[in-house]
Inverse folding.
């Protein structure tokens, strides 16, 4: 039986059992093993040299990871995926494997805070970085230099939900033969495929909505096949073999993953795969909830401002419609309470259904005071420059019944 013409949700559910593993369990079991034994010396030599498919050591691969990687490749309509212990492990490995001291990169200024911290570390190791407003392709174009190696953006920024100009930046990168890397964690492959906008590499944190249960950390890099690695100067001689489309992913797995060792555990891979089975259903519900909650907050007299790409007032609403179509506008929103009304802490403390947590993309709705937590370290001047108001409350919307969520926020706002 084949499901290759079915919807992605259907393909996902039946993916493992149709891929012929022993005794045909419905999804891939956990292969709790570090090593793999071979019949003879020639067989292990052939596996090492890539002449036969085969596992050698679980830091580089494991059947449970292969199954999850194949599902993610399917979701992204791409050529290959590598999973990692965390999203940060995925980004860190990409930077370590692909950049040299003296290279220049262009990075969105609206970035997940830990990613900014990681990029700043690479700056200490000799990579020049320009942070620009990625919702404006002109700003990206202006920053490009002769030694620019890649452009890195997030689809939907956290916490204020700015939408990157993916189409514009993708076209620019194609014209200049630059690698376009998209962190689509907040967009998710249910809302858009970064590949369709020219991304060569897509990063997904598997700790967020793709899992939903928040029971495991993980990350992934997917090579979409859009980038011609023959244009990338930092591919080592050993990986410049065969089809140039595969040079990058070879170097990322064989060198990047091996060197850094930020490998996903097989237990976590299976836990993530269990969450992934219901991803489309959960995402549909959570996006519908987020839109309804954003509209409710927008109309509430105690609320000053709501950031949500699904609202017509959002600065990139038209772009969000172009990118996401009818599929939803994500599960992240932010709002500010009128300063004359109530302290943001009092509003958050009064929530009973929403929990107080810094996570994103969970099945449960979560609220966070942004300025005092994830943006506390940067100080008031930087917060002001980035439009982070002291009263800003970030909400990651879950899959509860919407009536319970609106009732909860209504009573908390008072
Ligand atoms: C959470 C997140 C990451 C990092 O993922 P971890 O799995 O927590 O390491 C990277 N980018 C974005 C946009 C995220 O939301």
């Amino acid at each position: 039986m084949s499901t290759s013409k079915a919807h992605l949700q259907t393909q996902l559910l039946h993916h493992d059992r149709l891929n012929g593993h022993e005794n045909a369990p419905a999804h891939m079991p956990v292969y709790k093993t570090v090593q793999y034994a071979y019949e003879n010396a020639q067989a292990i030599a052939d596996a090492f040299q890539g002449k036969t498919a085969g596992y050698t050591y679980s830091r580089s691969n494991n059947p449970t990871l292969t199954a999850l990687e194949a599902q993610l490749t399917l979701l992204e309509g791409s050529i290959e995926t590598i999973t990692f212990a965390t999203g940060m492990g995925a980004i860190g490995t990409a930077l370590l494997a692909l950049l040299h001291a003296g290279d220049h990169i262009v990075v969105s200024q609206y970035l997940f805070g830990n990613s900014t911290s990681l990029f700043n570390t690479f700056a200490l190791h000799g990579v020049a970085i320009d942070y620009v407003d990625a919702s404006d392709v002109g700003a990206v174009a202006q920053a490009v230099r002769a030694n620019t190696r890649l452009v890195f953006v997030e689809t939907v920024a956290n916490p204020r939900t700015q939408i990157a100009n993916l189409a514009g930046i993708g076209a620019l990168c194609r014209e200049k033969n630059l690698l376009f890397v998209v962190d689509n964690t907040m967009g998710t492959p249910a809302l858009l495929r970064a590949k369709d906008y020219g991304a060569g590499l897509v990063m997904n944190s598997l700790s967020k909505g793709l899992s939903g249960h928040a029971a495991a950390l993980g990350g992934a890099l997917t090579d979409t096949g859009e980038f011609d690695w023959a244009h990338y100067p930092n591919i080592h001689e050993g990986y410049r073999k065969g089809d140039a489309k595969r040079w990058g992913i070879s170097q990322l797995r064989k060198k990047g993953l091996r060197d850094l060792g930020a490998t996903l555990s097989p237990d976590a891979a299976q836990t993530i795969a269990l969450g992934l089975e219901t991803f489309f259903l959960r995402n549909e519900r959570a996006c519908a909830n987020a839109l309804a909650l954003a509209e409710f907050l927008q109309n509430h007299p105690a609320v000053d401002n709501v950031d949500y790409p699904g609202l017509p007032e959002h600065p990139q609403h038209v772009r969000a419609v172009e990118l996401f179509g009818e599929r939803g506008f994500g599960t992240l929103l932010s709002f500010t309470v009128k300063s004359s009304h109530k302290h943001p802490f009092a509003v958050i403390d009064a929530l009973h259904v929403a929990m107080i947590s810094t996570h994103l993309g969970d099945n449960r709705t979560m609220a966070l005071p942004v300025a005092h937590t994830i943006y506390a370290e940067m100080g008031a001047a930087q917060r002001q420059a980035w439009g982070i108001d002291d009263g800003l409350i970030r909400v990651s919307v879950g899959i509860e019944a919407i009536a319970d969520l609106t009732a909860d926020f209504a009573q908390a706002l008072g």
Remarks:
- The first helix runs from residue 8 to 14.
- The chain has a mean pLDDT of 95.
- Residues 104 and 145 are 7 Å apart (CA to CA).
- The first strand starts at residue 80 and ends at 84.
